TrEMBL record:
InterPro entries: 5_nucleotidase/apyrase, Metallo-depent_PP-like. This is 5'-Nucleotidase C-terminal domain-containing protein. GO terms for molecular function: hydrolase activity. One of its GO terms (biological process) is nucleotide catabolic process.
Amino acid sequence: MRENGENPIILDAGDMFFSTTSINNNNIKSEKHRCETMLDGYEKIGCDGLNIGKYELLTGVSYLKSLRDKYPKIPFLSANIRDKNTNKLIFSPYEIIQRENVSIGVIGLTNMVPDTMKSIIVDDYIKTGKNLIKKLKNDVDIIIMLVNSDRGTHNSQPKNFENADFIFVSGSTNRTSPSMPQKDGGPFLYSNGKQGKYLTVIDLELKNNSSPIVDISSHEQKVKQLDN
């Protein structure tokens, strides 16, 4: 894509690091190798924001901090996870990305922190997300939410974050089909499937920053079906 003059924004909604929630002495070495191999790949191709979700936290905050320090080019995002001792956020709550004359705010959230995590405080992700959207709304052109939450919450996220533009969720093996109708005027909701096996690719054409974004994917799919 870059060879063709395109400069994509690459984001990860979370639950990417490990292949299982059962991390133990028998598999921890191979699972960490898997995780760091993926981060090596992200560092090579570029990653503009990685949301911290349930899977990322499975081996503890210390290991996660060491990865953040090892891969400084990859923004680790979490707006609602704080250190219990300091009461401060452990990771950056959001990232602002500039592409030519368009600014994009990316916010990371989760509500799927493992019950065994005693060293952190998890703030209400909906309240936190709404507050950050309000904070960023006048400073950026587009707001993207990366949300790690259980499957049952996914359909309610456009209502929870109604002033966002795009919402990418993890925490489910569901994958959003291009033919799925989206909410008129947004925000547009996408689930990317299991363990990073699929990519959701959004081609966004902006002619007027003040006009609402229109999703034409489902209409294009209907036309293709008629042509076939």
